């Protein structure tokens, strides 16, 4: 009798994704597709410390590793220790920027895993003209295609929810995201336009709810001055609570920023407003429309409200 072959050991797989808050949600379909493809393998994610709790909450990864993100020699040596200790069989570098390109040679003198990304010497190079001008979701799909990995059209964020009863907001309500990252105020549709949208929503019986970080509370105050029915939740929501609000909202309007990406990805009918200050138009979600004009001066509130009506169907 021929003895049975020993079972193959689970492969050790690493996904690298740093980036900003919104980038994490744009990568959700890629994360889920990689998890399906490596269902019996050990799957790790290397990400920023600020995103690590979300990654653990998602349940997609067996292990979440934290990238120090610093540019010091000590930080790169710490990354080298993580990579070498992991003994990974394959790496999907979804970040694929100059910092993570340097991680590949950190494995010297080897052995090197299969490596998908833009690093010089990668076994599966993902380099082509105009790569950085391709929207992130499409870029991930192209990168994963050679492995037979196909991301879903929209993400499954069923894990991102929380009770919102303590906010005491009567339905129906709509979310407004007038802020952006502090270094990119050019991505902000003028706050007076958000005030116009809030007023129009209130006239329809829909409560405007402004969300964002605490540093955007001044924007919320400006909207509330024009529309007193506005509810200001800036700086008051956790990420799961923002997901809970998005699941129950009548609709949403927001700038090219992380909370808008989350709200759209959860499935809330969303109008994401863009000007040419943003890169490739990108978002992911089953009910999102990207309303773009070259300059925000050419974008009025009536057009945004009409887009919101369309996406609500």
Give a written overview of the molecule.
α7 crosses α8 (217-226), α7 packs across α11 (301-312) and α9 packs across α10. The longest helix has 14 residues, at 73-86. The model has no long low-confidence stretch (mean pLDDT 94). The protein is an alpha/beta fold and 313 residues long. The chain is built from eleven helices and twelve strands.
Give the CA-CA distance, first to last residue: 65 Å
What would the principal axes of the Cα set say about the shape? elongated
What CATH calls the topology of the largest domain is: Rossmann fold
Spell out the helices and strands N to C. Answer: EHHEHEHEHEEHEHEHEHEHEEH
Q: Strands of the biggest beta sheet: in what spatial order? A: 3-2-1-4-5-6
Assembly type of the shown chains? single chain
Secondary structure: number of strands: 12
What is the CATH architecture term of the largest domain? 3-Layer(aba) Sandwich
User: What's the total helix number?
Assistant: 11
Protein structure class: alpha/beta
Unreliable parts: none
Radius of gyration based on Cα positions: 21 Å
Mean pLDDT score: 94
Main β-sheet description: 6 strands, parallel
CATH superfamily of the largest domain: Glycogen Phosphorylase B
Strand percentage: 15-25%
The tally of structural domains comes to 2
**Helix proportion of residues, in percent?**
25-40%
């Amino acid at each position: 009798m021929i003895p049975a072959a020993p079972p193959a050991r689970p492969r050790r797989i690493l996904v690298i994704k740093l980036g900003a808050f919104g980038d994490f949600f744009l990568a959700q379909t890629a994360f889920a597709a990689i998890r399906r493809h490596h269902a019996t393998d050990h799957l790790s994610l290397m990400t920023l410390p600020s995103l690590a709790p979300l990654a653990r909450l998602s349940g997609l990864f067996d292990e979440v590793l934290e990238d120090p993100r610093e540019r010091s020699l000590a930080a790169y040596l710490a990354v080298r220790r993580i990579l070498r200790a992991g003994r990974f069989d394959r790496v999907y570098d979804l970040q694929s920027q100059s910092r993570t390109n340097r991680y590949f040679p950190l494995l010297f003198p080897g052995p090197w895993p299969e490596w998908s990304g833009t690093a010089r010497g990668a076994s599966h190079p993902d380099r082509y003209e105009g790569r950085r001008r391709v929207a992130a979701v499409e870029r991930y799909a192209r990168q994963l295609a050679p492995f037979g990995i196909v991301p879903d059209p929209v993400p499954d964020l069923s894990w991102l929810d929380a009770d919102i009863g303590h906010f005491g907001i009567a339905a129906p309500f709509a979310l407004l995201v007038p802020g952006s990252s502090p270094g990119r105020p050019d991505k902000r549709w003028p706050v007076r336009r958000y005030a116009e949208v809030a007023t129009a929503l209130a006239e329809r019986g829909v409560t405007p709810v402004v969300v964002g970080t605490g540093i955007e509370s001044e924007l919320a105050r400006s909207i509330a001055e024009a529309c007193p029915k506005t509810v200001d939740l800036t700086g008051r929501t956790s990420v799961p609570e923002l997901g809970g609000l998005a699941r129950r909202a009548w609709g949403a309007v927001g700038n090219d920023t992380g909370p808008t990406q989350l709200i759209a990805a959860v499935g809330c009918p969303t109008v994401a407003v863009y000007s040419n200050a943003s890169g490739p138009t990108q978002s992911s979600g089953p009910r999102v429309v990207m309303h773009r004009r070259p300059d925000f001066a050419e974008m009025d509130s009536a057009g945004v409200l009409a887009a919101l009506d369309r996406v609500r169907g």
